[in-house]
Amino acid sequence: MNGSVAYLVTAAGCLIGVAGIVVAVVAIWRTRTKPRRHPGPTDPFRDRDADALRGDPRRLSPGDIVEIRGTSYAVRGSVLLKEGTWTWSEHLLDDAGGGQLWLSVEEDPDLELVLWMTDPALTLTPGAPTVDLDGSRYTSNESGHALFTGTGTTGLDPSGAMRYHDYRGPGALRLSFEAYGNAAWEVARGEVLHRSDVMIYPQAGPGKVG
Fold first, then answer.
1. pLDDT reading at 206 higher than 70
2. Number of Cβ within a 10 Å radius of residue 55
3. Of 48, 53, 119, 135, which one is least surrounded by beta carbons within 10 A?
């Protein structure tokens, strides 16, 4: 091998080595700067005994029976909502008299159960920092957009997008604005329930309990 060839071989080796270092540095930089997806919160103090005795609200599905403060309701349909890694569910309940309510189930990270009644007579719109209604002041809590998937009978499309804006009132009172697809805002009054207010009777066997 003459001197010129040896020089070219040495130079090529150096270039390959430098290229390898650059690739390694870029790979490390991408790894360190890549955003991480965080899982949704879970309740470390979840009362599994209550779930076993009273049924698990997280597993509610169409056909189940829910007893709330002594009144029995059938779950007619369920809606699973997802915003990023955050998920929650809303269930349409029918009572024996034909009345309808919604039960929302959310972990934040504590389990929160809210009983909702839609009020078509209200002409309020969301956006203000506070809303005054029937002598109570509600303060804006959270708002956003979510994707939803429905099962059973809900009166909604099987899937799509929705908007929401939630307000907190005094004590257990809540106020929620929701708009599915291109529909107008619907207003619902809500009340936070105690875990002991709710008893669930799954209709798909004991495997759904606990």
1. no
2. 22
3. 135
